[in-house]
Structures are given as C-alpha cells and as structure tokens.
Design a protein that fits this description.
By secondary structure, the chain is mainly α. Helix content is 63%, strand content 1%. The strands form two sheets. Strands 1-2 form a two-stranded parallel ribbon. A two-stranded antiparallel ribbon has the order 3-4. The longest helix is centred in the C-terminal third of the chain and has 25 residues.
C-alpha cells in the first residue's frame, strides 16, 4: 500500500526512524532494557499456550526470517525462570502445564462437571499439548510430577482432557492412576466421569459421539490390559498393582450401574437405559483386536459373566419358581439380553454352559439373571439345546446320587426356563418331565429312597407351583411301582389341594390345554374360548365332532356344560349361509349333546342381537386383531432387513424371539398355549383324495379359519420375500441362519401347524401348476427347511393321502409334502419337475458345506426319488450312461430366470456329480415298486408323454433299469418272477389305496357296485405284466419222470397277500371291505393275464397231466368268497379257467383225457367250478366248443360232453316235459336244473316240473333248495345282480313244500360243513363264507311253510332251528350288518326277523317230542347267555315227565 506521495509504508517508517533519535547509546543497552521489560510483564502459563500461534509461519512481505524458534525461546524462558526460582526446568514446566490444564477445564459454561470439552477448550488444550510434546522432546518435562500435580487440582480433570493426554502419549491413563494418592477417589472420579460420558453420548452431535466412543474404547483397553493381566506380566509390573485394583473396581462399579439400569428399564427411564447401553460397547470383542491377549480377554468376560450371575442375589428359590415366567427372552430387559449376547461371543456354547454350571455350583446366584441367561443361550445358540439336556442329566444324576435338593431345584428351574422359549428351541416341560421320570428307567427308578426323594421334592414345590406345572405332574405322574402307589397318591392329593386354592380344578381343564404351560392357569372362560376355536378347526377339517368334545360331554360333564357350551353358544348375528360354527352346533344338537332348552335360548339371543343391530344401524365391532397383526408384519420386515446384512446376522435369533412373541399374540395364545395338544400327538390335516385330482371341484380345500389363514399367508410371504431378498446378494450357502430359524420358529407354534400344512396342500396340490417362478422357489426352499425341522413336527395324519402312503399311518413332514406332488397330468408333471428341481438345487447349495453324513441326514428321500422318476421320464438324455465331462453345476440364481427351461435345468442337476453321489445311497434309491406306484398314478389320457413315448419309457425302466439291477439297488436281480411279483403287488396296492379313498363304509357290502368303482387297473402296466408272464413261460419244462409240479408263484403271491395282512389296523368291517376289494382285484388281474397261467402241467410217471390244484385251492379258500351268487364264480373267472384248461391240455399227449381227469377232480376238490359252469353254461357252451374245435378238431372231451348233456336234459325237462336223468352226483343235475329254472320267467313251469320229478330225486330237491336259499341271500347282499328276493323266497317255499310232501329230510342241510352228512357236505363247502354265515336269515324266512308235522317227523329240526336262532343272535350281537331291502328298510327288518324266529321257537317247543328236546343239550349254555327266557322254556319242557307231574301237584297247594 502506498502513501499520498506514492511512497511505501517502509519508506515512511524508515524516514520516521531517521528523524527520531534513540535514547540508548548502544545495542547492548537496548537488549538489556528489553529483557528488563519482559521480566517485569511475562506470564509463563500464557506463554505455553502461545506456541500454536508462534509456530505459524505468519511472515509479512519482505520480513526477515526469525533467527530464534519458538520452542527454543520457551525453553530459554523456562530455564531462566527455573534458575531464578531454584527449581529444575522440568518441574517448573510440569507445574505450569497442570495449572494450564486446570484453568482450561474450569473455563466451562456448564455449572456442573461435564466429561467433554467445548471447542474453545479443546483448541487451547491442543496448543498446550503441542508445547508439552516439544518440551518432552527436549527433556524439559517431568511426567511423574505432572501426574502428582494433576491429583492436587481443586477439581478433578475433565475426562476428555485426560484422554487427550493418554492419546497424545504425554501421560497414559495407567501412569496417571498409578500416581493417585487414593485409589477409591480415583475410582469415584472415573466412574462418575464415565457415567456422565455415557449419559451425554445420547444428546450430542455425531462428531462428538465418535469422540465419546473413542474415549470409551481407549479407556476400556486400559482397564482390560491392566485389570486382567496374566500372572507373569503382573509380576513384572509390581508398580501397577494399584492400577489393576482401580481398573477392576471401575469395571465392577460400571457393571453394577448397568445392572441397576436393568431394573429401571420398565420404569421408562429412557435416558439411563440409553446411557447404560452405550457402556455395553466396552464388551465388543472386536474392540480389543490384537491389543489384548486372548486369555486376558476371556478372563475379563468370564469375570463379568460371573459378576452378572451373582449380582445382588436377593431372590429366593421360591421367588424364582413363582416369577420364572416373567424372565423369558422376550420379557427380559433388552439391555440385559444385549449384555449376555456380547459376553457370550467370547466363548463357545459349551464353555458358556460350563461357566454357568461352575457359577451355580460355587456361588450364591441371582436367579433372575441366571434364568434369563439360560433363555438367551437357548434362543440365540442352536447347539445349546442338547448341551442343556446334558447339563440337566448331569444335575439329576448328582441330585439322586447324593439326594441333593440344590441340584434338583437347579435342574427343574433350568428345564422350565428353557421350555418357556417354545418347542422350536427346547422340548416342552411336559415332555422333559415324562422323559426323566415317566418310566421305570427314570432317574428315580433305582430305589424306593430315590422315589421318596423325588416325591418329597415335588411336595415341597407345591406351595409355590403354578397350576400348569401341577397339571403336568398330575396328568403325567412319575412312574411308581404298584406297591408304592400310595406315595404318589399323597402327592396328587396335595397338588389337587393347591389347584383348588388357585381356583383351578382338573375338571375345568380345557380340552386342548397345553400341559407344558409356563404361565399361570388361564381362567376357564378364556380356555373354553380357545377350546371352541380348536374344536371348530378340527370339525371344519374332518366334518366330524372331535372325539375330545364327545368325551368331555360324557366324562367331563361339569366343564362341558358350564364352560364349553356357553363359550360355543355366545349370541351373535347368524350369517345367511351357515358357517362352520353353525354346522358344528347343528351336529352337536343332532347328537343330543346340546340341551333343547339351551339351544332355544341361544337362537332367541341371536335373534335379539340381530334386531338390536338393525335398530342401532351399527356395524359389527371392528376386530382388535389388526394391531397385533400389523406388529407381526413390522417385525417380519425388520427380520428381512437383518437377513440381507451379514453384519446383523447375530441379531437374527433375538429378532425371531420377538417375532415369535408377536405371532403368539396374533393367534390369541398366551405362552402356555404354544402347543394345542401334547407334543407326541399327530397333526391332523385335511387332504384331497388322490383319485379326485381330475375333478378338483369335488375335493373340498382344507378348511382354515380366517385369522390363521391370513397369518399363514403372511408368514409364507415373508419367507419368500426374505429368500428372494437374500438371494439377490448371496447364494443360499452364504445367506446365514435366518431362514432356517424362521421355519424352526413356526414349527414351535403347534397350533399353527395344521393351518400351515393345510395351506401347503392348497398351494402345492391345488394351485401348483398356476404358481409363478418366485412362488415355486420360495415354497421349494420352505419345504426343505420344513424337513430340516422334522424333529419338531410330529406325525401328520392326512384324511386322504397319496397312494404311496400307508392308510391310517402318520406321515413324516417330508412324506407329507412329497405326497402332495402327484404326477398325473401334463400340468402336474411340469410343476413337479420345476418344484423338485428348485428344492434339490436349494438343498445342495444351502448345505454344501456339511459333511456327507450330515448332508444325507438332511435330504428328504422323497425329493430325490421323485427326481429319479421325473428326469428320466421327461428327458431321454437321462436314460443313458453319464459321461464324466457332462457333469456340470446348476446355478441357484438361474432358477429365478423367467426364460429358464426346466427340463434342461433338471438335466443339468441330474448330471451334477453331487447329485449322482446321492443316488448311490441306498436310502435315496428309487426302487422298482416305488417307480411303479408313481407310474400307476398317471392319467394316460392327460399324460405329458404320448402312448408310444410312454411305452418306450416303460420298456426302458423295466428291461434296462430295474430287471437287471441288483435287489440292493431296488432291482430284481434278473429274476422274472420277482419282477412279476413286484408289479402285481404294486398294482394291487395302488388300486387298494385308490379304493380306500373312494370307499365309504355303508351298511351293506354291495359287491356289484364296489366292483365297478374300485377295481380299475392300469391297462398299460397290466400289459407289461402280461409280457413278463408270457416270457416267464419260455423256460425249460420238467423232464419225464419228475413227479414235482411246477411251482405256481402267482397263486402263492395272491394267497400270501391275504394271509400275511395284519388285521389290527382297523375294524372288522373295514377288514372285510378290504378283503372283498382285494379279491375283486385278484379276479381282475387273473382275467387280465393269459388263461394258460391258471393251469400248469406236471408229470405222473411218463405222462404229462394237468395240475389245477393251486387254482382249486385258491378258489376254495378265497375266490369263492367274492362271488355274489354264493355258490358260483363270476362268468369271467369261469370262462377264463376253461379256456386255460383247454390251452394247457395241448401239453398233454391225450388232451381229452387230461381235460376229463381235471373235471373229474373238480367234483371232489373244487365243486364250485362245476356249479359255476352249470350256472353260466348257456354263455359258456359256444365259446368252449369253438375253442375245442379250433385246437383239436375232434369231438368234445367226455366230461365236457356230459356237462352239455346235463344242460340239455334240464332244458328239455322244463320245456317239453321229458324225464330228467339224475346225475352222479345229484347236486350237479340240480345245479343245471336251477340254472335252467333261472332262465324261465315266470316260474310256473318250474312248479309243475317239481311235481314230475321221480322218486329218486330227493337229493336233487335238497340241492335245489340249497341253491334257492343262497339266491335268496344274494338278493339281499347284491340286489343289483338281478336276483329278486320275493321270487327267490316263493321258489324256496315251493321246493320246501315239495320236500315235505315227499317226506324227505332236509334240516341237516343247515348243519356246518364239518357236521353235515356226506351228501350235504359238498353243498356247504361250495358256499361262500358270507352266505354261510347268513343261512339263519334264509332259514327263518321259510317259517311260513313250516308245518307242525315237521316237528314230529324230523327229530333234528328243533336242534337245527335253535342253532340257526343262536347264530342269528350272534350275528346281531357281533355287529354283523344284516341286509335289508333297498326299497323299504322296514321290510324284513333284522329285529323283526329275530322276534319272529323267537316267537316261532316259543310256539314250537311245547309240541316237540322228547327226543328232539334231548338233542339240544349242547346248545343250552349258549342259549342261556343270549336269551335266558328261551333257555328257561327249553329247560322247562325238557324235564322228565315225573318231574312235571310233581310240579303240577305242588302247584295245587
């Protein structure tokens, strides 16, 4: 800048200087004057703070550089001042530095001490520290003195100032603490400052928050390094023992401060809780890194955990028993659970539990902290469950070994606490109690002393017990030998007294109350509401009144009438269309389970409520369930954000506990209702019948209540969204544990499982083909995790399962969802392929790091087997031998691509080396039988393959894959018989399962209708069986002279299925239905096989003869019992046998002789075949004659000609009046005559013909009566077979009149086959078992024609009549369904028939001769049991005449 004349300031000043004369004579005088001036006015403290400004290079333009540095200037000043004062320079510097620190810390606008400096203080302190560092560099500063002077300050320093000293390596915190004159004072200062820092941390800016975190971190490192040094290091630093004391004391005081804050958390002291949470950063393991030895860190965390568990142990054991339910994970202070989770990071789960055990054994503990620590461990650590089980076992062994109550109570408290968290993380208390004490092998079973110890312990708990635990002990009591039963009864009495004090009665227990309940017992009103909802769910699924409700109405009447019915019949506005509740109420009303008065009151109250609603014009009260539902939705969203952030995975377990708590609230359950039934009871789910896939409108979808279905949908949607969100960042193997834990949590809510599994049925079975790629991926991953949690899911009972499932058997969850994947149509094949490919790809990627054994344990066998069926069926490439270079991996991310070709994806998965390794495991190999059962489910007309493609696939599977494969791999070892047996069994099992799905038990075995609907067979698989059977016949024949016949494996197999079945699976009626259906299927299969398979050849001497023994045996034992005619096989089987007989005779040298011998054998070994031929001869004759002519071109064989002749004779006898020659045996002529009569309508000619029979026709007439009676029975049990009951009855009465007119004896016809005379034995043996059992029905249908003379002529008549009556009563008592008329159920009512039979006997007995009465003695005992009055009548009239006269005389008096 220039002056007015253009001269610069320098020139002006220079001129001014020239004009002014100096008062000093020389430069030395001037310097001395300057020094005197500085000495009079200098301030050493301010000088130390000016170093910052003096150090700045603020040089003006043209100024000369300074010759002396600020540092040297300050040093010189300090030295001069120190020399004047006579003290060392370093001492003077230290004192001045302390004075500056004190002044800086005091210059605060805040009236109270604060832990942080303001910006001006921080700037001044920075200047001071820079100067001190310079002095340290010049060895002009005394650290020890500085530390001593710091403690002499009037007010303790601000914490941040001390941190800056520590951080700047001027004076470390440890050195400062070591110089403190009083350790407690230092502890007090540090604790108050640290508390202030934590409290201030929540109200400061972001930058200051980082500063506060830095202060806390650095000091925490010091506390750890010096407070928990190892013994060796501590010995080297004896001078720091005071520091160790202070560090430990500070940590302990701060921990106590945090634990005190835990108690105030519920008092909504937010600021204190936030401050304490800030201190928890001290326990971040990552904070210490490499600055602290691992042993020191573990010692610090172990010490802290011990302090937490033993802090303020004021609660007694009795308090813990009563308050335990409040200490679950979700109810425990988040501050305390956060502390636990940080501490437990330093240890393995096993180490943590060992530390917990050590503390329990050696310290007096705070039970709230101990049990909340148990909850945190079981929730956050998956491995904790088994380790806690081991700990409980150890505690119980010690308790019963030493009879130690402390170990006993510890075990019970830990078991109950772990069970509070639900079955997803630990077994319910009821299950643990049963497992520990419910059997003779329990911990108390070794001696009476142990038993007494247990019962005394339980008795001591009673005054403090909650009702649910008492119920567990009562409902599942400890195992007690019968001789010590009184000890248990004493405890039960005491427990019931306690329940009465709690106003909880066993009689008021809910129908579905969870006995492992951790809560206090809910009020009966609330429990009844839950019981009603549960009963409604079961009713909607099964359409039947739940068994528990029926039992309660009988055995628990007080609860049923006082609580359950009022909860069910709460007044409401009834819907226009009856809903599930109305249907349930109506069912109970029809079953007389609701009193009429109560039902009327309910209807009136509902009507009144409707009127009130209309008058008020108000809407229904809005649901209050929305708020908990929204909370659940929000918590699931939080969980989703945690799942995609790897740094947050450690928070997943805690968040899931919160989700579980919200879910419990949404479902309306307290924690005591985490299960709706005992853990071992199966889950019942409604499923569609497999035969109804083609017509889904006829299959009711599984019923779900509105709220549970919305909850299930939310859970499934959240799972899918979480999976897709996580998959967008990482593949499944790097997605963390969130999804597994989420599904595990769902499985822990037992009352959710029926709705969840039912929804899976809806989505997979009903809606599968319409699902999108994202839905399929989500559901596929879900079922994989569901199978992973299979230990938490009991058996699943489906109303109608797939054909692979055993009817009535509880399925595992893997079997359940596999059974939903049925491949029948083109759409279902495509869906199953996509679903299974996605599931397998997810499985192999998610658990790729598992060992082979662990991985195989996780794999659902049904999934791998389904892929073994699908991939080769739909991809030709999978049917060949894989090349090594063809094996490639399937990317999980590629499965979400919309343009993905699933056939290629599945083929890529198939070729994957890991998948091929799985196929080598026996558990995952698809056997020939399993392949057949899957193939038999296919609907050929809707198959994804054409008929020719399907045939090629069948041939490849049978001849290339399974026939040559070893049995260990599910094959047939090249054995054609084994292959035929597998196919035959598969066809029968598949048809039976479809039949059982269709079959509804009725009051009649309607064989004709049953045969049409339940015996359809797969024609293509049957063709494959035919091919194998024909190929089987191409084998070397037996050589002449070999007496052994060829083994007929077919009949052995069929017979084995009937005899090897366990009848304990169902009722007698169900077993009878199964057997009838099985025999119908056998008939269908025999008809589908070549006729020649029924008859084999064998050698007798040097002659080949026909061997029909196997067929005859099968007919006599089984096949005749499926006949609706009672004495004849069906036309199909009869014609098939005769065709086979003629075909097999080709192997004989003389075909006619072979046929003659076989038919002659029939008369004695299998008369039902000849009776069948007689019945069906009009249809059979033309076919047989044509076949014989085609095969041999010769006259008919003699026996065939005789059959034709008898038929002709019978026809001529009826039509032209020609004489009827009686055959030998006579029953054969009777059979042909009966068949001919059946063709006549009306039967007037038959009546006339009876009169024309010769005198040698008595046996023929008896046989004719027998056939007519069997027709009469057939008209009842198979009315659709064309036999009319009334016509058969009239015809039977006519025959009976003819017999009575001839004086022919016939009653012995009704004796059993063993007891009947020889002439009747053949007839009885030919009848089916069911017709034989119903002969009493036919006998007493003939009573109108029984004449009084019959009683005198037939001595055996009364015995036979009584035997038939007894059998009739036994049929009724045993529950045998006596057939009735379809048109009029009251016609021939069974009870009326029994009454008529009884009246007949009562009227006939007085007229019977003595000989007849003497024959009834063996029957009297049975008669007395069934009809005492009739037995008394028989005894009365069977006494000797003398006794009768004496009795009459006595009556005179």
């Amino acid at each position: 800048m220039a002056g007015a004349g253009g001269r610069s300031w320098r020139d002006l000043l220079a001129g001014r200087a020239r004009k002014r004369r100096s008062p000093f004579g020389s430069a030395a005088e001037l310097q001395g004057a300057a020094l005197r001036l500085l000495d009079q006015h200098q301030n050493l403290a301010e000088l130390l703070l000016e170093v910052g400004d003096s150090a700045k290079p603020g040089v003006q333009d043209g100024a000369e550089p300074r010759g002396v540095s600020p540092e040297s200037f300050i040093v010189s000043v300090l030295q001069e001042q120190a020399s004047k004062l006579g003290v060392p320079t370093a001492t003077l510097a230290a004192k001045n530095a302390v004075a500056n620190v004190e002044r800086i810390c005091q210059d605060s606008a805040s009236p109270s001490q604060v832990p942080l400096l303001n910006s001006d203080q921080r700037k001044r302190l920075t200047c001071l520290l820079q100067t001190v560092k310079d002095l340290l560099a010049n060895n002009m500063f005394c650290r020890s003195l500085f530390c001593q002077e710091m403690w002499k300050m009037k007010e303790p320093p601000v914490l941040e100032a001390v941190w800056h000293l520590h951080r700047g390596d001027i004076v470390g915190l440890a050195e400062l603490l070591d110089r403190s004159p009083a350790g407690p004072a230092a502890v007090e200062w540090l604790c108050s400052s640290l508390c202030g820092l934590c409290e201030q941390a929540g109200d400061i800016s972001c930058g200051d928050t980082e500063l506060a975190q830095g202060i806390l971190s650095d000091f925490a490192i010091v506390f750890l390094q010096h407070g928990f040094e190892q013994a060796v290091e501590l010995g080297r630093k004896v001078e720091f023992q005071k520091v160790a004391y202070i560090c430990r004391a500070v940590l302990q005081r701060m921990l106590a401060w945090v634990l005190d804050a835990v108690g105030k958390e519920k008092q909504e002291d937010v600021s204190m809780v936030q401050a304490a949470r800030f201190w928890l950063n001290v326990f971040n393991v990552s904070l210490y890194g490499s600055v602290a030895p691992p042993d020191s860190l573990r010692q610090f965390f172990r010490h802290t955990l011990t302090e937490v568990l033993t802090y303020n142990p004021a609660l007694k054991v009795s308090d813990a028993i009563q308050m335990q339910k409040e200490w679950s994970f979700t109810r425990t202070s988040p501050l305390l659970t956060a502390l636990y989770r940080k501490l437990l990071v330093a240890f393995s789960v096993k180490e943590s539990i060992c530390q917990l055990q050590q503390v329990l054994e050696s310290h007096e503990v705070n039970w709230q902290h101990v049990l909340s620590c148990v909850s945190t461990l079981v929730v956050c650590q998956a491995e904790a469950e088994q380790l806690f089980k081991d700990l409980l076992s150890h505690l119980l062994l010690k308790a019963f070994g030493n009879y130690d109550m402390e170990n006993m109570i510890t075990a019970f408290l830990i078991a109950r606490q772990a069970a509070l968290e639900g079955p997803a993380v630990f077994m319910p208390y009821s299950e643990w109690f049963k497992a520990s004490f419910g059997s003779a092998g329990g911990y108390h079973g070794s001696s009476k002393k142990s038993l007494v110890f247990l019962l005394e312990f339980l008795s001591e708990l009673v005054p403090f017990e909650a009702a649910p635990y008492l119920k567990v002990h009562i409902m599942f009591p400890p195992f007690v030998p019968s001789k010590h039963r009184s000890l248990l009864l004493e405890y039960i009495t005491l427990a019931k007294t306690r329940l009465a004090d709690l106003k909880v009665a066993i009689e008021d227990m809910g129908l579905y109350e969870d006995l492992s309940a951790p809560e206090e017992a809910v009020q009966p009103q609330a429990q009844a509401l839950r019981d009603v909802e549960k009963a409604l769910q079961i009713f909607e699924n099964t359409r039947k009144i739940p068994t528990s409700v029926i039992e309660a109405s009988i055995f628990r009447r007080p609860y049923y009438t006082s609580w359950f019915l009022p909860a069910l019949l709460r007044p409401r506005v009834l819907p226009k269309a009856p809903d599930g509740r109305m249907a349930f109420i109506d069912s109970l009303k029809r079953a007389d389970k609701i009193p009429s008065s109560l039902y009327s009151t309910y209807l009136q109250a509902c009507h009144a409520m409707k009127e009130k609603v209309l008058q008020d014009d108000s809407k229904a009260e809005p649901s209050h369930a929305k708020e908990p539902f929204e909370q659940l939705k929000a918590e699931l969203a939080v969980l989703r954000t945690l799942a995609v952030q790897q740094a947050q995975w450690e928070e997943v377990a805690a968040q899931l506990a919160v989700v579980s708590d919200r879910l419990r609230r949404v479902l309306g359950d307290s924690s005591e209702d985490s299960e709706a039934a005992p853990f071992s009871s199966p889950v019942r789910v409604a499923m569609p019948a497999p035969g109804l896939a083609a017509c889904p409108q006829s299959v009711p979808a599984p019923g779900l209540a509105a709220c549970p279905q919305s909850v299930v949908d939310l859970l499934l949607t959240s799972f899918c969204q979480t999976l897709l969100a996580a998959s967008s960042f990482n593949p499944p193997d790097r997605q963390g544990p969130c999804l597994s834990l989420l599904v595990k949590m769902m499985c822990g809510h037992r009352n959710l499982l029926p709705a969840l599994l039912g929804r899976l049925c809806q989505l997979i079975y009903h809606q599968g083909p319409s699902l999108g790629a994202a839905h399929i991926l989500g559901l596929a991953a879900f079922v994989i995790h569901l199978s992973e949690c299979r230990a938490l899911i009991p058996g699943v009972e489906a109303n109608s399962g797939a054909s692979q499932a055993v009817p009535g058997k509880a399925l595992s969850v893997s079997e359940y969802w596999s059974s939903l994947l049925l491949c029948r149509t083109e759409e279902s094949f495509a869906f199953c392929l996509r679903f299974c490919t996605a599931a397998a790809a997810y499985l192999m990627c998610k658990f790729s790091s598992c060992s082979h054994e662990d991985f195989c344990a996780l794999v659902p066998p049904g999934l791998i087997k389904k892929l073994q069926y699908l991939v080769p069926r739909l991809s030709l490439e999978a049917r060949g031998v894989l090349c090594e270079e063809a094996k490639s991996a399937l990317s999980w991310s590629s499965l979400s691509c919309p343009s993905l070709n699933y056939r290629r994806a599945s083929l890529c998965l198939w070729r994957q080396a890991g998948f091929q390794e799985l196929l080598k495991e026996k558990a995952f190999q698809l056997s020939f039988r399993e392949w057949l059962l899957m193939e038999l489910e296919v609907c050929p007309e809707k198959d994804i393959l054409s008929a020719s493609e399907r045939q090629d696939f069948h041939h490849w599977a049978i001849y290339q894959r399974y026939l040559p494969a070893p049995s260990a791999a599910g094959g047939c070892d090249g054995d054609l018989e084994k292959a035929c047996a597998v196919i035959l069994n598969a066809i029968l099992d598949s048809s039976q399962s479809r039949g059982s799905a269709w079959c509804v038990p009725s009051f009649r075995l309607d064989l004709g209708a049953c045969a049409q609907s339940r015996t359809s067979l797969s024609p293509e698989i049957l063709c494959r069986l035919q091919e194998l059977v024909l190929e089987l016949r191409c084998r070397p024949k037996l050589l002449p002279g070999c007496s052994a016949a060829q083994r007929h494996f077919l009949f052995e197999l069929l017979q084995g299925r009937l005899t090897g079945r366990d009848p304990e699976h169902g009722s007698a009626l169900g077993e009878q239905l199964w057997r009838q259906q099985e025999l119908l299927l056998h008939s269908r299969i025999l008809l589908g096989l070549p006729a020649s398979t029924l008859v084999t050849t064998c050698w007798k001497g040097n002659k080949a003869v026909l061997d029909c023994d196997s067929f005859f045996c099968f007919v006599n034992s089984e096949l005749k019992n499926v006949s609706s005619r009672g004495y004849a096989l069906s036309y199909g089987i009869t014609a098939h046998f005769f065709r086979g007989l003629l075909n097999a005779s080709l192997d004989c040298e003389d075909a006619a002789e072979g046929v003659n011998q076989a038919l002659a054998t029939c008369q004695t070994k299998c008369p039902v075949v000849l009776l069948s031929a007689a019945l069906w001869w009009p249809r059979l004759e033309a076919a047989l004659c044509s076949q014989w002519k085609r095969l041999f071109g010769a006259p008919l064989a003699e026996e065939l000609a005789r059959l034709r002749g008898w038929h002709s004779s019978a026809s001529r006898f009826l039509c032209s009046g020609a004489a009827l020659p009686v055959s030998d045996p006579p029953w054969l002529s009777a059979a042909f005559l009966h068949g001919a009569i059946l063709q006549q309508s009306p039967r007037g000619r038959g009546t006339e013909a009876l009169e024309r029979l010769g005198t040698d026709a008595e046996q023929l007439l008896v046989a004719l009566l027998f056939f007519s009676l069997l027709d009469l029975i057939s008209a009842r049990i198979a009315p659709k077979e064309g036999v009319d009951f009334q016509t058969s009855l009239e015809w039977s009465l006519q025959i009976l009149q003819c017999l009575q007119g001839r004086g022919t004896s016939w009653p012995l016809l009704f004796h059993s086959a063993e007891g009947a005379p020889g002439r009747f034995r053949v007839l009885r043996s030919a009848a089916s078992q069911r017709h034989t059992r119903l002969l009493p029905l036919a006998f007493y249908s003939l009573t109108p024609s029984f004449q009084q003379e019959l009683l005198q002529q037939e001595p055996a008549f009364l015995s036979v009549a009584l035997q038939m009556y007894i059998q009739l009563l036994q049929l009724f008592v045993e529950g045998e369904v006596l057939p009735q008329s379809d048109r009029d159920p009251t016609e021939h009512d069974p009870l009326e028939l029994i009454s008529a039979a009884r009246q007949f006997l009562l009227g006939a007995i007085p007229h019977c001769p003595a000989q007849s009465l003497g024959n009834i003695q063996p029957l009297l005992s049975t008669c007395e049991e069934l009809d005492p009055e009739l037995a008394a009548t028989l005894l009365h009239f069977s006494r000797p005449a003398v006794d009768m006269e004496l009795e009459e005389e006595l009556e005179l008096f």
